[in-house]
Amino acid sequence: MTLLHSPILATPEKIDLTLGFLPLMDCAPLVIAKEKGFFSDVGLNVQLSREGSWASIRDKVMLGLLDGAQMLAGIPLASTLGLGSPQVPMVTAFSIGLNGNAITLSHALLAEIDELGHDPEDTSANGLKQLIQLRKANGRAKITLAMVYTYSAHSYLLRYWLSAAGIDPDNDINLTVVPPPQMAVTMKKGLIDGYCAGEPWNSVAQEMGIGSPVISGYQIWNNCPDKVFAVLESWHNAHPATHEALICALIQASNWLDQPQNSDEALDILLANAYLGPALSMLPQPVLNQGNRLFFRYAASYPWRSHALWFLEQMQHCNQLQDNTDLHQLACQVYRPDLYRAVASKMQLPHPTIDFKPEGFHDREWVLQGAAGAVTMGSDLFFNGGTFEPRRQPC
């Protein structure tokens, strides 16, 4: 195992903490930080609270019932804007990895698409588009697809995939929200025809024999961001040393998770009933890095403000934000790579020195010159050849 340098940190203002998580593979950094002692190494006594939905996590953090939590990347942005909840500013200084999502369609829906002569190797939504047109012509009900939260990577990746085939997500289909642990059973009941969710819920649908993944989040956008660890802005201001200790422990845990020799032990830990036990126990061979999931490599834990801008632009494209919203200012307020860099510098860890990077230009590994050494980055292609190049203005 490659150990990172353990820095000397300021004494935490608050030692006893409760952090929230959802039973998904990417809760692993929080679980490993607790079970492998990385939290205790930085002087923190952390309890993990398993929650049932993203809305529950959001609300409990807002109410102070949780000190921080695993969150969808869109939650701190939406909460700071007051979208779907009271306006409560949040910040994130740690990204919980890259990739791990997929779009799964029910076997019944896939059978209808196959009858139209669709190539099963085609990962586009063209076959779905053809079926939508046929159903409309025959007066049949719209197809219903689910995402885990309105302001989520799942929602925007699903919309991006549909739009590339000429499908209007707001008019051609029904979009609904279903908590991740309920996705497979909701599809089994016939209430939804497919969904975009993180692992293990795509594999669970496959094992239940009710659906199959048709495209992964990685295929839609190579090394796409998904979750973050977030706290209230007011909580950070009151507990900056505690927040720094949390970031340090999570970096250590993410590095540990990306060591191949630790995969089996990590899965054993996650299989405990308090974490992912019921879901993982359904799978004959659960895989930690399903869907090209990364926790540390390719600067996977770095909170890129350009990622925040991409999400914000998707919100604006979906008419969830007013056109006059200052997206750059919001990205700078909510995403805090400066806090990550402060910790990484103390850990003598190579890390990016910039806040924004372009997407869609690299089809292989590339090298970013950073502090304390070069940082190897991964491919960042979009499946339709699109690009995203944010303005690199200072915050």
Radius of gyration: 20 Å
User: Which strand order spans the largest sheet, edge to edge or round the barrel?
Assistant: 2-1-3-10-4
Query: What is the top-level CATH class of the largest domain?
Result: Alpha Beta
SS class: alpha/beta
Proportion of helical residues: 25-40%
The CATH topology of the largest domain turns out to be D-Maltodextrin-Binding Protein, domain 2
Number of domains: 2
How would you sum up the major sheet? 5 strands, mixed
Order of helices and strands: EHHEHEHEEHHEHEHEHEHEHHHHHHHEE
Write down the overall mean pLDDT: 94
Please identify, by name, the CATH architecture of the largest domain: 3-Layer(aba) Sandwich
Shape: globular
Q: Could you characterize what this model shows?
A:
It is a single chain. The chain is of the alpha/beta class and 395 residues long. The chain folds into 2 domains: 16-98 and 225-357, D-Maltodextrin-Binding Protein, domain 2, CATH 3.40.190; 101-220, Periplasmic binding protein-like II (D-Maltodextrin-Binding Protein, domain 2). The protein contains 17 helices and 12 strands. The protein has a 5-stranded mixed β-sheet with strand order 2-1-3-10-4, sandwiched between helices. Strands 7-6-8-5-9 form a 5-stranded mixed β-sheet, sandwiched between helices. A two-stranded antiparallel ribbon has the order 11-12. The mean pLDDT is 94.
